[in-house]
Specification:
alpha/beta; TIM Barrel; 3 domains; nine-stranded parallel sheet; 19 helices; globular
């Protein structure tokens, strides 16, 4: 198959060969549509997508998937444990960059079987700055609705129905699907205002916190009932309990409280208008949810008195930033977010200290049950735990824990009771103990029963000293600890102008390693496959990170939709690599790796090499030096096996059969180019 090398040639190739390329996918000869750029895939007409799906899946399966009365079986439905994710290659998708859930199916046509899981970034209605991680309610984000899909299948007339069938289709295509689990909300979310008792509150006057007592939520509850009474009118005919003990209890369910507070099923904007009235009511009394924090010491807030820390909104309200009173290096305050209040406070929160022996069990039950309902409703296969690194106990990770140790762990455990294969992918960066959390992150993750964790290889230049050291450390963690670190290629957090330096070179090596290290999970964000080489910052519209929120002004603002990179040369190389993985994947996917030249943590050597432990048939070699070629590489020999042909190279379109020889103790490779990955056959 001819794979073009420039953007215009890819477009021309598709115009000339569209039918043949689609048929390769429809007949099951390839798990993705070759030569189809993602930027082109998401623009394919919906009718054409349905035709392709019918040919690939069968008409009856397609119709079943398009029914909201059916949960199409997950590829994992017969599994009874979560170890599958330790070998999974995940692709993360910010739906805002592609426009709708429906377009996720189109993008999936570009994802090979070797990348078997799709992580969908937060799906809920957004709050402050329209951030996906500042969820404002448990409703699905209406901006992810597709009018095209609704026209094609009229019964799919809500975003919730569309999400349901999209996950059905992804499952039918063989993909596992993950959701975000978020331990916080927008500071003034509908969740917060309907359940003040599940959050921590403070009261301020100008630049002083006047009250942050442990039971301040009761004052907030009383104020909310006063607001309802003040705003009672003929247009709001509902009735409600008049005591906080009943109104904010299970006797008056949350769904009823939401109707009273925000109206009977009004649209998103109407509910925002109603919410703004209530926010203003609380603001005038100085009542605010405590903002979320990150990094030790987590606790002990004060208002920042500087002019730069003040903002005036469109109504004239003056907002202030908060800061940690005695900050450590990674101390952060996230003004738009607030955490769930999971424990009682010591001494009525006089010194901002938490009593970890007294969990607020109703809060835990509420959050766990909400996420259980989401998983059951949409049939998700795994969760990404946002900010899994948070561990607030100053004494570090305890030796013994219970069900109220960590909220994300509790959510996972609750869902796993009903769905035993439901896995936990933790967002931690494997930093030094006491840096981003109290204690050791791996200890914390093991106490949380996390399956895999993100790590931070994406924050290193390939082959740099830091990259080599961390890569080797991750392999040791993979071997000796219960949590598997990812070989992470790119994340949404790192697709940002500040991090362009990480992705100038070595991108082919990243994907090569991720696909062929078969006993290590990996993660790749949408956009990597055609990401432009930015020697200087590009316009914001080329970075997926800047679509996590929606800003119209400032350095992080975007004007218009996300723009796919046009790095056709990179897409050419990665397409070749993915097609090669199609050929040899069935031979190696279930095998454990046997290292012959593991990463050198001193970075003195930059060549790595491995084969398969059980049935070694392929030898993989990568030069992690992205500037220099390396000559006369000696690789320890696998007893009884001779080196064979060069089957694949990331640097050469037509690999020759020369370049490797077998000696008594070594295989010797004459030369390997900067950042090149090679695969050789092995035989008796």
């Amino acid at each position: 198959m001819i794979i073009p090398r420039d953007y215009e040639s890819f477009q021309l190739n598709w115009q000339q060969n569209e039918t043949q390329l689609k048929e390769i996918f429809e007949r099951g000869e390839c798990s993705f549509i070759p030569n189809l750029l993602p930027s082109m895939a998401v623009k394919l007409p919906g009718r054409e997508i349905l035709t392709i799906l019918a040919a690939r899946l069968g008409e009856s399966t397609l119709q079943s998937c398009l029914s909201t009365d059916v949960h199409y079986a997950s590829p994992l439905h017969q599994q009874t444990e979560t170890r599958w994710i330790r070998r999974s290659n995940m692709v993360g998708v910010n739906v805002r960059t592609i426009g709708s859930f429906w377009n996720l199916v189109k993008y999936a046509f570009c994802i090979p079987a070797s990348q078997d899981s799709i992580h969908i970034l937060p799906i809920w209605e957004p709050g402050g700055a329209a951030s996906l991680y500042a969820m404002s309610s448990w409703r699905i984000n209406p901006e992810f609705y597709s009018s095209e899909l609704a026209q094609l299948v009229p019964q799919l007339d809500t975003v919730e129905k569309q999400l349901h069938v999209v996950i059905n289709l992804l499952h039918a295509l063989g993909k596992k699907v993950g959701m975000d689990v978020i331990p916080h909300t927008d500071r003034y979310s509908e969740i917060v205002l309907a359940n003040p008792q599940y959050f921590e509150w403070l009261q301020r006057s100008e630049i002083e916190i006047t009250d942050h007592s442990g039971d301040l939520h009761k004052k907030v509850q009383t104020s909310i009932l006063d607001f309802l009474e003040q705003n009672r009118n003929s247009h709001h005919p509902l009735t409600w309990p008049t005591t906080i003990e009943t109104f904010f209890s299970d006797a008056f369910p949350e769904v009823e409280r939401l109707k009273v507070l925000f109206g009977e099923n009004p649209d998103f904007l109407s509910r925002i208008d109603r919410r703004l009235l209530l926010i203003d009511w609380l603001f005038q009394q100085g009542l605010e949810p405590v903002p979320a924090t990150m990094g030790p010491p987590y606790r002990g807030l004060e208002l920042d008195p500087s002019q730069d820390a003040m903002a005036i909104d469109s109504t004239g309200r003056i907002w202030r930033d908060y800061r940690i009173i005695k900050p450590w290096e990674m101390s952060r305050v996230f003004g738009p977010l607030t955490r769930y209040k999971l424990y009682e406070a010591l001494d009525n929160n006089r010194d901002w200290a938490i009593d970890f022996q007294k969990p607020r069990k109703a809060t835990w039950t509420y959050v766990c049950e909400k996420y259980r309902q989401v998983q059951a409703l949409y049939n998700f296969d795994f969760m990404r735990g946002d900010m899994s690194h948070v561990q607030m106990r100053p004494d570090g990770v305890p030796a013994e824990t219970d069900e109220y140790y960590d909220l994300l762990s509790a959510v996972h455990a609750r869902i796993k009771k009903d769905t035993p294969y439901f896995a936990y992918f933790a967002e931690t960066f494997l930093t030094a103990p006491g840096y981003m959390a109290y204690g050791n992150e791996i200890d914390h993750l093991e106490q949380c029963n996390a399956d895999v964790t993100l790590g931070d290889l994406q924050s290193q230049v390939v082959g740099s000293a830091g990259f080599m050291q961390e890569f080797r450390r991750y392999l040791d963690l993979l071997k000796y600890r219960k949590v598997a670190p990812c070989f992470t290629i790119l994340t949404g957090d790192k697709d940002d102008p500040r991090f362009d330096q990480f992705y100038v070179k070595g991108n082919e090596a990243r994907l090569f390693i991720s696909l062929f290290l078969t006993d290590m999970p990996s993660y790749m964000a949408l956009g990597f496959e055609s990401r432009d080489t930015h020697l200087k910052p590009a316009p914001n519209e080329y970075y997926t990170k800047l679509y996590v929120f929606q800003l119209e002004e400032g350095s992080k603002s975007t004007q218009g939709p996300y723009r796919w990179g046009q790095n056709a040369e990179l897409f050419h190389h990665l397409s070749r690599l993915r097609l090669f993985a199609e050929k040899i994947g069935p031979d190696i996917n279930d095998q454990t790796v046997r290292w012959l030249l593991p990463p050198d943590p001193t970075a003195g050597e930059r060549v790595i090499a491995w084969t398969q432990a059980e049935n070694p048939s392929y030898l993989f070699v990568v030069n992690l030096h992205i500037l220099n070629e390396i000559n006369n590489i000696k690789i320890p020999k696998v007893e009884g096996l001779q080196s064979g042909a060069l089957l694949f190279s990331t640097a050469a379109t037509k690999p020759d059969t020369a370049g490797i020889e077998t000696y008594s103790s070594f295989y010797q490779i004459d030369q390997i180019s900067p950042g090149e990955g090679k695969c050789f056959s092995l035989h008796p």
